[in-house]
Amino acid sequence: MTNSAFPPLDITPEFVAAAKASKAWPFEEARKIVKRYSRDGYPDEVLFETGYGPSGLPHIGTFGEVARTSMVINAFRLLTEDKVKVRLLCFSDDMDGMRKIPDNVPNKEMLEAHLGKPLTDVPDPFSNEHDSFGRHNNARLRAFLDQFGFTYEFASSTDYYRDGVFDEILLRCAEKYDEIMAVMLPTLGEERRATYSPFLPISPTSGRVLYVPMKAVDPAAGTVTFDDEDGSEVTLPITGGHVKLQWKPDFSMRWAALGVDFEMYGKDHQNNSQLYDKICRILGARAPEHFIYELFLDDKGEKISKSKGNGISMEQWLSYASPESLSLFMYSKPKTAKRLFFDIIPRQVDEYFQHLSAVHDADPKTRLNNPTWHIHAGNPPRITMPVSFSMLLNLVSASNSSNKETLWGFISQYDAEVTPQNNPKLDELVGYAIRYFEDFVKPDKQFRAPSNQERAAMDDLANRLDAMDKHSDGEALQTEVFAVGKDHGFENLREWFQALYQVLLGQDQGPRFGSFAALYGKDQTVAMIRDALSR
Q1: In 3-state terms, what secondary structure has residue 18?
Q2: Most buried residue, 102, 211, 232, 532, by most Cβ within 10 Å?
Q3: Contact 321, 349 (CB under 8 A)
Q4: Would you list the DSSP string of 290-334?
Q5: What is the pLDDT of residue 310?
Q6: What angle do CA 198, 251, 4 make, to 5 degrees?
Q7: CB 385 within 8 A of CB 511
Q8: Measured between alpha carbons, how far is 380 from 40 in angstroms, rounded to an integer?
Q9: What is the pLDDT, as a whole number, of residue 129?
């Protein structure tokens, strides 16, 4: 098998047929690549690429790009019955010059002297473990990707430039210099046009990446001539890492040099997409298939910015929920701008387990449209989650406990067969719920007094629940809650349930109240209602 490094797929005629008809977006993108080679047949391998700027540490967008590309790869593998070799290349632009010093690094004064140098020539400010800032961040990227079990190969721009991987295509850039300039110059302002060159030489004196005009480009000799920072005229070979390309031509050059077949990028690249393709064609190569995804928004609906810090970081999400829930967020509607903030986490967690519970007994068509098939590369695990995340949040709130053992006491009463040992995912979820409640629910809790109608209804509910069998399940308890609401004249029962949560738990909404009462315990729920009415 050519793709043994990737997880095995269930490749049966039924699944392949379902894949060809599936409207799930990874299959739609994968079909573009199938069509790309439908006439002439496949090359030795189909190359998927993602890019990473190592001026900072990997972030949630990095995860999203690799996760989504991996979903397309597995869709493609199923469509081609895993008979075509595929490769995912995670490419680090580590030869870029360091334009500014990041806020979150130590030894900033030391870095001042290295502004403008390639990131792999800037000393590591964190430790002596790596020989440069770029290599440090590359190591962090690889550890980051390994943490989530991605199948990929890592590539360094510095290595590719200096080891000659790009030499042939760089010489072609020199031959096509005027054509590349004709594409680039109309996109620039007047002042920038006067000094622009797609070639960025590395100063032999200062080691900095220079944004200077070229005095001469000699394709035959394979050299560029320019004025160095001290005013002296310098001629350098284009090859061997003495020169790199501006980022837009660099994008295209890399596609042409490596034969990239698929790359996705954010909507902020959309205006440049045709430009990338044009330069790639000028260099004699076919541009890859693209997928342009929407950018994330903060809680106010504004675009998330790394410099503003107005979003949610990878580390923050993983403090309150699992990587799988984040993968679901990445899978869902990638072409729609979505809020990426803390308040979306509980729903993503619960929706993930809802999808997971439905995937295994589904027919192939339904299974391939289930997000968990894509999240788990065609191998979703069998996990039973008897209690939802939102329910656990309310249990933490009602019990006023941040102790896992106390919460497991309630869970064991609710389902005696479930333990932390035989359901470690639920135990993990309990820990997430405690942290999320303490940081996001507890600070905003606001109890209110009930109206006369609500007071009478809640008093009646406490009495009816008190009279019910102690083994009543969530459905029976929910039926009684409904009946009380109707009997007390709530025309909109949603207002009745909202009142229960506002008066009893100090929040506007929650899961099904009957299910919560079953988890918390009938007697404890009665006591909670009576305590609230006595306040």
Answers
A1: helix
A2: 532
A3: yes
A4: EEEEPPEE-TTSPBP-TTTT-S--HHHHHHHS-HHHHHHHHHS-T
A5: 62
A6: 150
A7: no
A8: 35
A9: 85
Helix (H, G, I), strand (E, B) or coil at 410: helix
Scanning 48-165, the segments in alpha helix (DSSP H) are 60-79, 108-112, 133-147, 157-162
Judgement on whether residues 119 and 203 belong to the same structural domain of the protein = no
Same structural domain for residues 237 and 253? Answer: no
- What does the alpha-carbon distance between residue 138 and residue 501 come to, in Å, rounded to a whole number? 48
Residue spans of the chain under pLDDT 70: 1-2, 305-311
From 263, 296, 329, give the residue that closes a domain: 296
Instruction: Establish if 482 belongs to a structural domain.
Output: yes
Sign of the CA dihedral with 466 first, then 469, 473, and 476 last: negative
Q: What is the pLDDT of residue 511?
A: 83
Cα of 424 vs its chain's centroid, Å:
24
Residues spanned by the domain of 215: 190-245
Concatenated DSSP letters of 423-480? -HHHHHHHHHHHHHIIIIIGGG----PPPHHHHHHHHHHHHHHHHS-TT--HHHHHHH
Are 240 and 250 in the same domain?
no
Write out the two tokens for 79: 């469509």
Can you tell me the distance from the alpha carbon of 332 to that of 316, in angstroms, rounded to the nearest whole number?
Answer: 20
Contact 91, 51 (CB under 8 A): yes
| Alpha carbon separation from 205 to 75, 100, 113, 195, 199 (Å, rounded) | 50, 21, 14, 21, 18
Q: Please list, residue by residue across 250-288, b when 16 or more beta carbons sit within 10 angstroms of its beta carbon and e when fewer do.
A: bbbbbbbbbebbbbbbeeebeeeeebbbbbbbbbebebb
Pairwise CA distance, residues 411 & 426, whole Å: 10
> Residue 229: what pLDDT?
95
**Do 79 and 157 share a domain, yes or no?**
yes
Please give the single-letter amino acid code of residue 384. T
Whether 162 and 73 map to the same domain: the answer is yes
Q: Where are the strands (E) in 95-232, listed by range?
A: 153-156, 199-201, 216-218, 223-227
Q: Say yes or no: 118 and 194 in one domain.
A: no
pLDDT, tens digit (0-9, with 9 covering 90-100), for 328-356: 999 999 999 999 999 999 999 999 999 99
The 10s digit of each residue's pLDDT in 404-446 is: 999 999 999 999 999 999 999 999 999 999 999 999 999 989 9
